[in-house]
Specification:
The complex is a heterodimer of chains A (355) and B (497). Chain A is an alpha/beta fold and 355 residues long. Chain A has 2 domains: 211 residues, P-loop containing nucleotide triphosphate hydrolases (Rossmann fold), CATH 3.40.50.300; 106 residues, Helicase, Ruva Protein, domain 3 (Orthogonal Bundle). In chain A, 45% of the residues lie in helices and 18% in strands. Chain A is built from 15 helices and 13 strands. The longest helix of chain A has 21 residues. The termini of chain A are far apart. Chain B folds into 2 domains: 153 residues; 229 residues, no CATH class. In chain B, α11 runs antiparallel to α12, α11 runs antiparallel to α15 and α11 packs parallel to α16. The longest helix of chain B is centred in the middle third of the chain and has 46 residues. The radius of gyration of chain B is 49 Å and the shape is rod-shaped. The N and C termini of chain B lie far apart (136 Å). Classes of the chains: A alpha/beta (355), B mainly alpha (497). β1 of chain A pairs antiparallel with β1 of chain B.
């Protein structure tokens, strides 16, 4: 009699190489559309591969909308943009029931789909909408469904919300509630570009119009990419590192740093740990590795945690931000949890240091 | 552009968990799993060595410090021999075992160490994955995993251990004379108890007055409680003085008791003889004999309270008048015998308290013994008053005179030989080099070391006697220890032998 045992298996180098080629194609096209944003593109793609929502924060005119539009074109999925304003109503996003005459001459309520029924929803200046409208997205972001009048409608697969918000002109804005913030996988800061990049933009583009992506992915390719993502291996030690990082973000926890104890009111949620694991998987895929390493966690930790930490007034007074606190955590925590005595340590060899 | 109905990845469950069925549960690619794992084993072995050594050093340091402290304390306080203290070597073995146990407890698991190596080598989780499952074609990536350097700042623990070993060596090798000795009182408990018991007996027998006995008892107790070995000669001298005083008082009391017994015995013999020889004697001689008996009884009653209490006034009056009836003579005889028994009992208690020699009890038993028949015959044969007076004088016992008692013309009877030692009243002067140095010396220190005898001509090395010249009759440094008490005592007692 033969017994069947489920044995995990790694992606083969060939499988990973094919997925890597697809990722590279997406990134190269994004880099061609938006100059000087390679790392941002990498993080956005990692967020997309993790099936997470992304909050982009940056000044007007830095290319947030252009990037998301280009991403929709490259991924060859439906893209819709909603400009959030204070008078925007939930029905403007989710859709509404309308009384219509049918062909048979009978009047009935028909559902008119809102812009949320798409693959990529660009929620532009999301913090300008009222909390009521912002909250309309909660179910869509978490359950990927919309419930109206007791009837639940599933959103198309995949579904991403890429929201932007402006860090200035805060008058008349409504800061996102913590529950909503927690639903974003990443909060990415879109910063200014360098002079060289600006020069390239001006020199190569008439009126700054970006080139149209010419190699969109097919549905089968996108599906394959998500399939590879599902088989990325997360070692137990890395999962523990992620757990320790998230736990240490809570003041009063065993491994909390002095900065966490002094400046953080509330730490990251378990959803942050899940998000970090997924994002690290995606980052490892983009790096061409079949398994997640500590470096992948370190790469995504700040983007995952910075909007989930609630700082106190002392932090604001001392001008300490979330990124600095996450960085402090990354520096303080031993990745593997060796817990060696203080006078014993593993040091890199000279050869490693040179490398 | 329409909404893409993207399907979930192929083989949803398998894809999600990353599981692949393998027949028979056999690991595929076992060989590839062992590549970087050997490196982990090597590193773990080295780390175990360091952690065990580190913990052993800490435990050894702690134990050796404790051991050295105990060595010093036991050598100084309980005067324990060095050989016994070597049993502490067993603690070294225990410390090593405990250190190994603790070191191995702190040893990270292979999985943790693998993770650490992965992080150090920036292997992207491949080494960690290799510990969990077959990495197949990825194994060349972890073929050569560099082993990070293990750094241990070991100077401090080694220095601490070396210092503790030095301390232990010093604790063992330090000569006895340099050890601080805890001062202890002289062991005078038995002597004081003995003296206290003797004092109690002397008080009960009314040899020592109660008020004086109370003062002496208090002095004795104070000497017992406060006796330090700083001046043992003086202390032992005072104890000896008390013992001698008690002995002297007891000896005097014993001598007196023997005399009383002897006197009472003589009187009792005469009373019994008169009782039996009444018919053979004429009335005048009988009356004179009874008067002589009355004088003897008067003297005895004056010395013995028990006799005085046992005689009635009527009997005493009849004694003095020389007119005793037969019944009165019997009563008198009984009273005198009782008096003798009282004196013997007193002497027996002194002997029991080791205040007087047991031979004294024998003397007491023989005191007053006489040949009753011969005395009766002699009384009957007396022709005149002269013969009767001589006989009655003989009945009063041997000569009553002595150095400290009796009249100068009292007859002395030399019945027993006198040994020269007992008559040695001449005070014996002790050699000046011994007693003088003992009494006039100053305490230079107390040590557990053996007393050192300085050779004549050796100069004192330092301290208050730095300029003293030894051997010339001057003070010497002599250390008197509590255990030398007996020696000192024997030294002072040699004059009495």
């Amino acid at each position: 009699m033969t017994t069947q045992t489920l044995q995990p298996s790694l992606l083969s180098p060939e499988e990973l190489a094919a997925a890597g080629e697809l990722a590279k194609r997406i990134l190269s096209q994004l880099d061609r559309v938006l100059l000087g944003r390679s790392e941002l593109h990498r993080m956005v793609l990692a967020g997309i591969l993790s099936r997470g929502h992304i909050l982009l924060e940056g000044l007007p005119g830095v290319g947030k909308t252009a990037m998301i539009k280009a991403l929709g074109q490259i991924l060859n999925v439906q893209f819709r943009r909603v400009q959030f304003t204070p008078d925007l109503m939930p029905s403007d996003i989710l859709g509404t029931h309308m009384l219509r005459d049918t062909a048979g001459g009978v009047r009935e309520m028909t559902f008119h789909h809102g812009p949320v029924f798409t693959n990529i929803l660009l929620a532009d200046e999301i913090n300008r909408a009222s909390p009521k409208t912002q909250s309309a997205l909660l179910e869509a972001m978490q359950e990927r469904s919309v419930t109206l009048l007791g009837h639940t409608r599933m959103l198309p697969e995949p579904f991403f919300v890429l929201a932007s918000q402006n860090p200035i002109e805060l008058e008349g804005t409504y800061p996102l509630p913590e529950a909503q913030l927690d639903r974003f996988l990443f909060k990415l800061n879109v910063s200014d570009v360098s002079v060289d990049v600006l020069e390239d933009i001006i020199s190569t583009r008439r009126r700054g119009e970006p080139p149209v992506p010419d190699q969109p992915l097919s549905a089968e390719e996108l599906s394959r990419l998500f399939g590879v993502m599902e088989r990325m291996y997360l070692p137990r030690a890395v999962a523990r590192y992620i757990s320790r990082l998230v736990a240490a973000s809570h003041p009063g926890s065993a491994e909390a740093t002095a900065e966490v104890s002094g400046y953080v009111s509330y730490g990251a949620s378990p959803r942050a740990a899940i998000a970090m694991a997924e994002a690290a998987r995606a980052y490892a895929l983009l790096a061409g590795r079949p398994s997640v390493g500590f470096e992948d966690v370190r790469a995504v930790a700040a983007a995952v945690m910075n909007h989930r930490l609630i700082l106190n007034y002392k932090a604001r007074l001392d001008q300490v931000n979330e990124v600095a606190i996450v960085q402090g955590l990354l520096d303080a925590l031993d990745e593997a949890g060796l817990n060696l005595p203080a006078d014993v340590q593993l040091a890199r060899t000279e050869k490693e240091n040179r490398a | 552009m329409g909404v893409l109905p993207l399907s979930p990845p192929h083989a949803p469950e398998a894809g999600r968990t990353g599981l692949r069925p393998i027949a028979g549960g056999v690991f595929a690619g076992q060989e590839s799993r062992g590549t970087g794992l050997r490196t982990v084993r090597r590193l773990r072995l080295r780390l175990a060595g360091i952690l065990v050594l580190r913990a052993c050093l800490r435990f050894l340091f702690a134990w050796i410090m404790v051991w050295a402290g105990v060595v010093v304390a036991l050598r100084a306080v309980l005067l324990v021999e060095r050989g016994v203290l070597l049993w502490g070597l067993l603690g070294v073995a225990v410390a090593i075992v405990a250190g190994a146990f603790q070191g191995l407890r702190r040893l990270p698991s292979a999985a943790v160490l693998r993770a650490s190596l992965d992080g150090h080598g920036a292997l992207g989780g491949l080494l960690m994955t290799a510990g969990d499952l077959d990495i197949g074609a990825w194994s060349p990536r972890i073929e050569r995993v560099p082993i990070p350097r293990l750094q241990w700042r070991s100077r401090r623990p080694w220095l601490l251990l070396a210092s503790s070993v030095l301390f232990l060596g010093a604790a063992f090798l330090l000569p006895d004379r340099y050890l601080p000795v805890v001062e202890r009182g002289l062991q005078l408990g038995s002597e004081v108890q003995k003296l206290s018991e003797q004092l109690q007996v002397l008080t009960q027998e009314q040899i020592v007055p109660p008020d004086k006995a109370e003062v002496l008892e208090r002095d004795l107790q104070r000497a017992s409680q406060e006796a330090l070995a700083r001046d043992p000669a003086k202390l032992l001298e005072s104890i000896d003085h008390l013992e001698q005083s008690f002995g002297k008082a007891a000896a005097e009391a014993a001598e007196k008791a023997i005399q009383q017994a002897e006197f009472s015995g003589g009187a009792q013999a005469l009373a019994e003889a008169l009782q039996k020889a009444q018919s053979q004697m004429d009335a005048q001689q009988l009356s004179e004999a009874m008067k002589a008996l009355g004088q003897m009884v008067d003297q005895a009653a004056a010395e013995s309270r028990s006799l005085a209490e046992g005689l009635s006034e009527e009997l005493l009056a009849a004694c003095r008048q020389g007119n005793l009836s037969e019944a009165q003579l019997r009563e008198l005889s009984e009273a005198l015998r009782h008096c003798q028994a009282c004196e013997r009992g007193k002497l027996a208690r002194l002997v029991e308290a080791r205040l007087v020699d047991v031979a004294e009890l024998g003397r007491c038993d023989q005191a007053g013994q006489s040949d009753q028949a011969a005395l009766i015959d002699a009384l009957g044969e007396c022709k005149d008053s002269q013969q009767l007076a001589e006989l009655l004088h003989a009945c009063q016992g041997p000569g009553r005179g002595g150095i400290s008692r009796g009249r100068g013309d009292a007859a002395m009877t030399w019945s027993q030989g006198v040994e020269a030692e007992d008559a040695a009243f001449k005070e014996k002067v002790l050699p000046p080099g011994a007693v003088a140095s003992l009494k006039e010396s100053r305490l230079a220190g107390i040590s557990t070391a053996d007393p050192r005898r300085e050779q004549p001509g050796d100069g004192s090395s330092g301290g208050v006697l730095g300029t003293a010249q030894a051997g010339g009759g001057e003070a010497r440094t002599q250390t008197i220890l509590p255990e030398h008490g007996q020696t000192v005592r024997r030294y002072f007692e040699r004059g009495h032998k």
